[in-house]
Protein backbone atom coordinates (compact mmCIF):
# COMPACT_ATOMS: atom_id res chain seq x y z
CA UNK A 1 0.00 0.00 0.00
CA UNK A 2 1.22 3.51 -0.74
CA UNK A 3 0.03 7.01 0.05
CA UNK A 4 -0.84 9.66 -2.52
CA UNK A 5 -1.48 13.10 -1.12
CA UNK A 6 -4.98 14.46 -1.68
CA UNK A 7 -4.04 17.82 -3.14
CA UNK A 8 -1.71 17.68 -6.14
CA UNK A 9 -1.31 20.69 -8.36
CA UNK A 10 -0.06 20.14 -11.91
CA UNK A 11 2.75 22.29 -13.26
CA UNK A 12 1.55 25.27 -15.26
CA UNK A 13 2.91 25.42 -18.79
CA UNK A 14 4.78 28.66 -18.01
CA UNK A 15 6.23 27.44 -14.69
CA UNK A 16 10.00 27.78 -14.30
CA UNK A 17 11.37 24.23 -14.42
CA UNK A 18 15.03 23.40 -13.75
CA UNK A 19 16.30 20.17 -15.33
CA UNK A 20 19.61 19.31 -13.68
CA UNK A 21 21.70 17.14 -15.99
CA UNK A 22 19.96 18.19 -19.21
CA UNK A 23 22.84 17.00 -21.41
CA UNK A 24 22.69 13.44 -20.13
CA UNK A 25 20.49 10.69 -21.52
CA UNK A 26 17.77 11.07 -18.87
CA UNK A 27 17.88 14.86 -18.55
CA UNK A 28 17.75 15.42 -22.31
CA UNK A 29 14.78 13.05 -22.56
CA UNK A 30 12.96 14.99 -19.83
CA UNK A 31 13.59 18.25 -21.69
CA UNK A 32 12.22 16.69 -24.89
CA UNK A 33 9.13 15.47 -23.05
CA UNK A 34 8.50 18.81 -21.36
CA UNK A 35 8.73 20.61 -24.69
CA UNK A 36 6.48 18.01 -26.31
CA UNK A 37 3.86 18.69 -23.64
CA UNK A 38 4.05 22.45 -24.14
CA UNK A 39 6.17 23.64 -21.21
CA UNK A 40 7.90 26.86 -22.22
CA UNK A 41 10.12 27.98 -19.34
CA UNK A 42 12.77 25.26 -19.01
CA UNK A 43 15.91 26.22 -17.14
CA UNK A 44 19.21 24.41 -17.84
CA UNK A 45 22.90 24.81 -17.07
CA UNK A 46 25.95 22.97 -18.40
CA UNK A 47 28.62 21.69 -16.01
CA UNK A 48 30.87 24.57 -17.08
CA UNK A 49 28.12 27.06 -16.22
CA UNK A 50 27.19 25.40 -12.93
CA UNK A 51 29.21 22.77 -11.07
CA UNK A 52 26.58 20.98 -9.01
CA UNK A 53 29.22 19.64 -6.62
CA UNK A 54 30.01 23.24 -5.62
CA UNK A 55 27.62 24.09 -2.79
CA UNK A 56 28.05 27.86 -2.97
CA UNK A 57 27.54 27.92 -6.73
CA UNK A 58 24.36 25.85 -6.43
CA UNK A 59 23.01 28.06 -3.63
CA UNK A 60 23.74 31.21 -5.66
CA UNK A 61 22.00 29.72 -8.70
CA UNK A 62 18.82 28.84 -6.79
CA UNK A 63 18.70 32.22 -5.05
CA UNK A 64 19.06 34.04 -8.36
CA UNK A 65 16.78 31.92 -10.56
CA UNK A 66 14.13 30.68 -8.07
CA UNK A 67 12.95 27.66 -10.06
CA UNK A 68 9.49 26.39 -9.11
CA UNK A 69 10.09 22.75 -10.06
CA UNK A 70 13.24 20.66 -10.26
CA UNK A 71 14.01 17.40 -12.05
CA UNK A 72 17.27 16.11 -10.54
CA UNK A 73 18.62 13.90 -13.32
CA UNK A 74 22.29 14.83 -12.97
CA UNK A 75 24.59 12.00 -11.89
CA UNK A 76 27.97 10.40 -12.42
CA UNK A 77 27.12 7.06 -14.03
CA UNK A 78 28.92 4.09 -15.53
CA UNK A 79 28.96 0.32 -15.95
CA UNK A 80 30.58 -2.44 -13.89
CA UNK A 81 34.15 -1.51 -14.86
CA UNK A 82 33.76 2.19 -14.05
CA UNK A 83 32.00 1.51 -10.75
CA UNK A 84 34.55 -1.09 -9.70
CA UNK A 85 37.57 1.08 -10.55
CA UNK A 86 36.39 4.37 -9.05
CA UNK A 87 33.96 3.78 -6.16
CA UNK A 88 35.20 6.81 -4.20
CA UNK A 89 34.57 9.10 -7.18
CA UNK A 90 31.08 7.68 -7.74
CA UNK A 91 30.13 8.13 -4.10
CA UNK A 92 31.61 11.61 -3.62
CA UNK A 93 30.39 13.24 -6.82
CA UNK A 94 26.87 11.83 -6.61
CA UNK A 95 26.49 12.58 -2.89
CA UNK A 96 27.72 16.15 -3.30
CA UNK A 97 25.58 17.12 -6.28
CA UNK A 98 22.44 15.47 -4.86
CA UNK A 99 22.71 17.07 -1.45
CA UNK A 100 23.56 20.48 -2.88
CA UNK A 101 20.59 20.57 -5.26
CA UNK A 102 18.04 19.07 -2.85
CA UNK A 103 19.14 21.30 0.00
CA UNK A 104 19.11 24.44 -2.15
CA UNK A 105 15.65 23.50 -3.45
CA UNK A 106 14.35 23.29 0.11
CA UNK A 107 16.03 26.56 1.19
CA UNK A 108 14.59 28.43 -1.78
CA UNK A 109 11.02 27.19 -1.58
CA UNK A 110 10.89 24.97 -4.66
CA UNK A 111 7.29 23.73 -5.02
CA UNK A 112 8.27 20.23 -6.04
CA UNK A 113 11.46 18.28 -6.72
CA UNK A 114 11.80 14.90 -8.41
CA UNK A 115 14.91 12.88 -7.63
CA UNK A 116 16.05 10.28 -10.16
CA UNK A 117 17.71 7.24 -8.63
CA UNK A 118 18.46 3.73 -9.87
CA UNK A 119 17.27 0.18 -9.33
CA UNK A 120 20.75 -0.66 -8.01
CA UNK A 121 19.59 0.77 -4.65
CA UNK A 122 17.85 -2.53 -3.97
CA UNK A 123 19.57 -5.53 -2.34
CA UNK A 124 21.57 -7.92 -4.50
CA UNK A 125 19.29 -10.82 -3.56
CA UNK A 126 16.06 -8.86 -3.26
CA UNK A 127 12.74 -10.62 -3.85
CA UNK A 128 11.74 -10.63 -7.51
CA UNK A 129 10.15 -8.53 -8.81
CA UNK A 130 11.61 -5.92 -6.46
CA UNK A 131 9.03 -3.81 -4.61
CA UNK A 132 9.90 -0.36 -3.31
CA UNK A 133 9.57 -1.74 0.22
CA UNK A 134 12.62 -4.03 -0.09
CA UNK A 135 15.01 -1.09 0.19
CA UNK A 136 17.70 -1.60 2.89
CA UNK A 137 16.53 -5.11 3.78
CA UNK A 138 19.85 -6.83 2.92
CA UNK A 139 23.28 -6.34 1.30
CA UNK A 140 23.83 -4.40 -1.93
CA UNK A 141 25.60 -5.63 -5.07
CA UNK A 142 29.30 -4.99 -4.40
CA UNK A 143 30.19 -3.93 -7.96
CA UNK A 144 28.07 -0.76 -7.70
CA UNK A 145 27.69 -0.33 -3.93
CA UNK A 146 29.17 3.19 -3.83
CA UNK A 147 26.75 4.50 -6.46
CA UNK A 148 23.83 2.75 -4.79
CA UNK A 149 24.65 4.23 -1.38
CA UNK A 150 24.78 7.71 -2.87
CA UNK A 151 21.37 7.25 -4.52
CA UNK A 152 19.87 5.84 -1.33
CA UNK A 153 21.11 8.91 0.52
CA UNK A 154 19.46 11.21 -2.01
CA UNK A 155 16.05 9.58 -1.79
CA UNK A 156 16.24 9.40 2.00
CA UNK A 157 17.13 13.08 2.23
CA UNK A 158 14.02 13.89 0.17
CA UNK A 159 11.96 11.71 2.51
CA UNK A 160 13.39 13.34 5.63
CA UNK A 161 12.77 16.86 4.31
CA UNK A 162 9.17 15.91 3.55
CA UNK A 163 8.68 14.60 7.08
CA UNK A 164 10.48 17.41 8.89
CA UNK A 165 9.64 20.45 6.78
CA UNK A 166 6.60 19.47 4.70
CA UNK A 167 8.32 19.66 1.32
CA UNK A 168 6.92 17.88 -1.74
CA UNK A 169 10.03 16.02 -2.93
CA UNK A 170 9.47 12.70 -4.70
CA UNK A 171 11.82 9.96 -5.91
CA UNK A 172 11.75 7.75 -9.00
CA UNK A 173 13.86 4.59 -9.32
CA UNK A 174 14.37 3.57 -12.97
CA UNK A 175 15.48 0.18 -14.17
CA UNK A 176 18.27 -0.11 -16.78
CA UNK A 177 17.83 2.70 -19.30
CA UNK A 178 18.83 3.10 -22.92
CA UNK A 179 18.05 5.33 -25.88
CA UNK A 180 19.03 8.64 -27.50
CA UNK A 181 22.09 10.42 -26.11
CA UNK A 182 23.37 7.31 -24.32
CA UNK A 183 27.03 6.87 -23.39
CA UNK A 184 28.80 4.49 -25.77
CA UNK A 185 32.25 4.67 -24.18
CA UNK A 186 33.99 1.25 -24.50
CA UNK A 187 34.88 1.10 -20.78
CA UNK A 188 32.41 3.40 -19.02
CA UNK A 189 29.08 2.54 -20.64
CA UNK A 190 26.26 0.28 -19.45
CA UNK A 191 25.57 -3.12 -20.97
CA UNK A 192 23.17 -2.26 -23.78
CA UNK A 193 25.05 0.70 -25.32
CA UNK A 194 28.30 -1.22 -24.83
CA UNK A 195 26.87 -4.11 -26.83
CA UNK A 196 25.65 -1.78 -29.59
CA UNK A 197 29.11 -0.29 -30.00
CA UNK A 198 30.92 -3.61 -29.70
CA UNK A 199 28.82 -5.37 -32.34
CA UNK A 200 28.86 -2.36 -34.67
CA UNK A 201 32.64 -2.17 -34.56
CA UNK A 202 32.94 -5.94 -34.94
CA UNK A 203 30.74 -5.79 -38.04
CA UNK A 204 32.71 -2.87 -39.48
CA UNK A 205 36.05 -4.62 -38.81
CA UNK A 206 34.94 -8.03 -40.01
CA UNK A 207 35.67 -9.64 -36.63
CA UNK A 208 34.88 -13.36 -36.50
CA UNK A 209 33.94 -13.31 -32.81
CA UNK A 210 32.98 -10.96 -29.99
CA UNK A 211 33.79 -11.65 -26.33
CA UNK A 212 31.19 -10.79 -23.69
CA UNK A 213 31.53 -10.79 -19.90
CA UNK A 214 30.18 -13.57 -17.70
CA UNK A 215 28.06 -16.49 -18.87
CA UNK A 216 25.00 -14.59 -20.15
CA UNK A 217 22.67 -15.94 -17.46
CA UNK A 218 21.78 -12.77 -15.49
CA UNK A 219 18.31 -11.39 -16.12
CA UNK A 220 17.80 -7.69 -16.75
CA UNK A 221 14.96 -5.25 -17.43
CA UNK A 222 15.32 -2.34 -19.86
CA UNK A 223 13.26 0.84 -20.24
CA UNK A 224 13.50 3.21 -23.20
CA UNK A 225 14.52 6.60 -21.84
CA UNK A 226 11.72 8.55 -23.53
CA UNK A 227 9.23 6.32 -21.71
CA UNK A 228 10.96 7.18 -18.43
CA UNK A 229 10.76 10.88 -19.26
CA UNK A 230 7.03 10.55 -19.87
CA UNK A 231 6.65 8.89 -16.46
CA UNK A 232 8.75 11.60 -14.78
CA UNK A 233 6.48 14.39 -16.02
CA UNK A 234 3.41 12.28 -15.25
CA UNK A 235 4.55 11.78 -11.64
CA UNK A 236 5.42 15.44 -11.20
CA UNK A 237 1.82 16.24 -12.07
CA UNK A 238 0.05 13.28 -10.47
CA UNK A 239 1.96 11.93 -7.48
CA UNK A 240 3.16 13.14 -4.11
CA UNK A 241 4.36 10.90 -1.31
CA UNK A 242 7.29 9.73 0.75
CA UNK A 243 7.56 6.39 -0.98
CA UNK A 244 9.65 6.12 -4.13
CA UNK A 245 8.13 4.91 -7.41
CA UNK A 246 9.75 2.20 -9.51
CA UNK A 247 10.07 2.89 -13.24
CA UNK A 248 10.28 -0.09 -15.55
CA UNK A 249 8.48 -2.42 -17.92
CA UNK A 250 7.91 -5.39 -15.63
CA UNK A 251 9.60 -7.60 -18.26
CA UNK A 252 13.06 -9.19 -18.18
CA UNK A 253 15.50 -10.75 -20.63
CA UNK A 254 18.71 -12.72 -20.11
CA UNK A 255 21.99 -11.06 -21.05
CA UNK A 256 22.54 -13.89 -23.53
CA UNK A 257 19.20 -13.22 -25.24
CA UNK A 258 19.87 -9.47 -25.16
CA UNK A 259 23.29 -9.97 -26.74
CA UNK A 260 21.83 -12.06 -29.55
CA UNK A 261 19.08 -9.49 -30.10
CA UNK A 262 21.53 -6.58 -30.34
CA UNK A 263 23.80 -8.55 -32.69
CA UNK A 264 20.84 -9.28 -34.93
CA UNK A 265 19.64 -5.66 -35.02
CA UNK A 266 23.14 -4.32 -35.67
CA UNK A 267 23.70 -6.97 -38.34
CA UNK A 268 26.68 -8.77 -36.83
CA UNK A 269 26.89 -12.40 -38.00
CA UNK A 270 30.01 -13.61 -36.19
CA UNK A 271 30.36 -15.80 -33.10
CA UNK A 272 29.55 -14.65 -29.57
CA UNK A 273 31.97 -15.98 -26.93
CA UNK A 274 31.48 -15.76 -23.15
CA UNK A 275 34.36 -14.92 -20.80
CA UNK A 276 33.30 -16.67 -17.59
CA UNK A 277 36.35 -15.33 -15.73
CA UNK A 278 34.58 -11.96 -15.66
CA UNK A 279 31.76 -11.14 -13.19
CA UNK A 280 28.08 -11.51 -14.00
CA UNK A 281 26.91 -8.85 -11.57
CA UNK A 282 23.52 -9.15 -9.86
CA UNK A 283 21.81 -12.39 -10.97
CA UNK A 284 18.39 -10.82 -11.47
CA UNK A 285 16.98 -7.29 -11.39
CA UNK A 286 13.28 -6.96 -12.15
CA UNK A 287 11.27 -4.10 -10.70
CA UNK A 288 7.78 -4.37 -9.31
CA UNK A 289 6.03 -1.61 -11.29
CA UNK A 290 2.57 -2.10 -9.81
CA UNK A 291 2.66 1.32 -8.14
CA UNK A 292 3.21 3.20 -11.41
CA UNK A 293 0.62 0.99 -13.07
CA UNK A 294 -1.92 1.74 -10.34
CA UNK A 295 -1.34 5.46 -10.87
CA UNK A 296 -2.31 5.01 -14.52
CA UNK A 297 1.03 4.86 -16.35
CA UNK A 298 2.52 2.23 -18.69
CA UNK A 299 5.54 2.17 -20.99
CA UNK A 300 5.00 2.11 -24.77
CA UNK A 301 8.34 1.16 -26.39
CA UNK A 302 9.09 -2.56 -26.67
CA UNK A 303 12.74 -3.65 -26.47
CA UNK A 304 13.42 -4.60 -30.14
CA UNK A 305 12.02 -1.28 -31.39
CA UNK A 306 13.89 0.62 -28.68
CA UNK A 307 17.18 -1.03 -29.60
CA UNK A 308 16.63 -0.15 -33.26
CA UNK A 309 16.05 3.48 -32.27
CA UNK A 310 19.11 3.43 -30.01
CA UNK A 311 21.27 2.01 -32.82
CA UNK A 312 20.06 4.76 -35.15
CA UNK A 313 21.06 7.30 -32.49
CA UNK A 314 24.48 5.65 -32.21
CA UNK A 315 25.02 5.86 -35.97
CA UNK A 316 24.01 9.53 -35.98
CA UNK A 317 26.16 10.44 -32.96
CA UNK A 318 29.44 11.92 -34.25
CA UNK A 319 30.89 12.02 -30.72
CA UNK A 320 30.41 8.31 -30.00
CA UNK A 321 34.06 7.42 -30.63
CA UNK A 322 35.23 9.97 -28.07
CA UNK A 323 32.78 9.24 -25.24
In short:
This protein has 323 residues and is an alpha/beta fold.
Q: Could you characterize what this model shows?
A:
The chain is α/β, with parallel strands linked by helices. It is 41% helix and 14% strand. It is built from ten helices and 13 strands. The strands form four sheets. It has a six-stranded parallel beta sheet with strand order 2-1-3-4-5-10, with helices on both faces. It has a three-stranded mixed beta sheet with strand order 11-8-13. Helix 5 links the parallel strand 4 (112-116) and strand 5 (169-174). Residues 1-6 have low confidence and may be disordered.
Number of helices, counting only DSSP H or I runs of 4 residues or more? 10
Largest sheet: 6 strands, parallel
Cα-based radius of gyration, to the nearest Å: 19 Å
Secondary-structure-derived class: alpha/beta
- Main-sheet strand order equals 2-1-3-4-5-10
What portion of residues belong to β-strands?
Answer: 5-15%
Distance between the terminal alpha carbons, to the nearest Å? Answer: 42 Å
Overall body shape: globular
Amino acid sequence: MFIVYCFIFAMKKEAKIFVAGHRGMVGSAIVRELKRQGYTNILTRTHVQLDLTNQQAVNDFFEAEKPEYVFLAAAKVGGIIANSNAPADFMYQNMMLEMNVIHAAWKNGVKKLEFLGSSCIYPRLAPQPMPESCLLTSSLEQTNEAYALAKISGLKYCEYLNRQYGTDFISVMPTNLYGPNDNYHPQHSHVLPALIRRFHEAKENGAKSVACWGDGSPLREFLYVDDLANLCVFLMNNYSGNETVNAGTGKEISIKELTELVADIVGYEGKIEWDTSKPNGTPRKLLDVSKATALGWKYTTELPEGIRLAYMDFLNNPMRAER
